[in-house]
Amino acid sequence: MFHIHIGVHKTGSTTLQRFFRLNAGVLAEAGVLYPDIGILQSGHHEIAHAARRGEFKTGVVAELSAFAKANPSATALLSTEAFDMLRRRPVKRLVAALKPHEAKVFVYVRDFTRLVPSKYSQLTKAGENLADFDAFFERVVRHEMAKATQPIERWASIVGWENVRIRALDPGSLAGGER
After folding, report:
1. Average pLDDT, integer, range 136-157
2. DSSP for residue 77
3. Is the dihedral of CA 10, 142, 83, 98 positive or negative?
4. Residue 156 has pLDDT above 50, yes or no
5. What are the b/e assignments for 93-106, b being 16+ CB within 10 Å?
6. What sign has the CA pseudo-torsion 166, 63, 23, 32?
7. What is the rounded average pLDDT of the residues 149-154?
8. How far is Cα 65 from Cα 77, in angstroms, rounded to an integer?
9. Over the stretch 117-144, which tens digit does the pLDDT of each residue have?
10. What SS3 string covers the chain?
11. Rg (CA), the chain
12. How far apart are CA 57 and CA 41, in angstroms?
């Protein structure tokens, strides 16, 4: 089984990846592998970049596929917010590369009731927003909802909704509070 954390940006992904990387030994003792394949900083960013470029027969995706085949009974964990930017075909090919494993996806999303006022304040202070809050809210909510739902829908269309877990980010759980 591969558990795949697909981001989304600004939802504590880097914190999770650092935790997974720093605790890879503890995770392995608990039966969950956090492979070193395609790691940039602490996340599996290079795997997503290679998949986006269509590089499945060589490089890190081929290495990941070999790892999956060599460890058919293992439980593994992959994490990068770059997975949320993959289109449907690269997602399908990446999931196929993980065979014989089943893929389960998890994603954290921002609470829009906190995100929108924060973004409004930030962009208004920076002079990038001149709209009143109602106009800003309508525009941003439509954009943020699409940004959050499209990647989840793409992955779910490949792995099935029953294999997708969505959780709201609790800003209080971030180091230093909400960002």
Report:
1. 83
2. E
3. positive
4. yes
5. ebbebbeebebbbb
6. positive
7. 89
8. 14
9. 878 888 899 999 899 999 988 887 777 7
10. CEEEECCCCCCCHHHHHHHHHHCHHHHHHCCEECCCCCCECCECHHHHHHHHHCCCCCHHHHHHHHHHHHCCCCEEEEECHHHHHCCHHHHHHHHHHCCCCCEEEEEEECCHHHHHHHHHHHHHHCCCCCCCHHHHHHHHHHHHHHHHHHHHHHHHHHHCHHHEEEEECCHHHCCCCCC
11. 18
12. 24
In this prediction, residues 65-89 reach a mean pLDDT of 95
Residues 78/159, Cβ–Cβ less than 8 Å? no
How many of the other CB atoms lie within 10 Å of CB of 124? 15
Upper half-sphere CA count for residue 166 (Cβ side, 13 Å):
13
pLDDT in tens, 18-35: 999 999 999 999 999 999
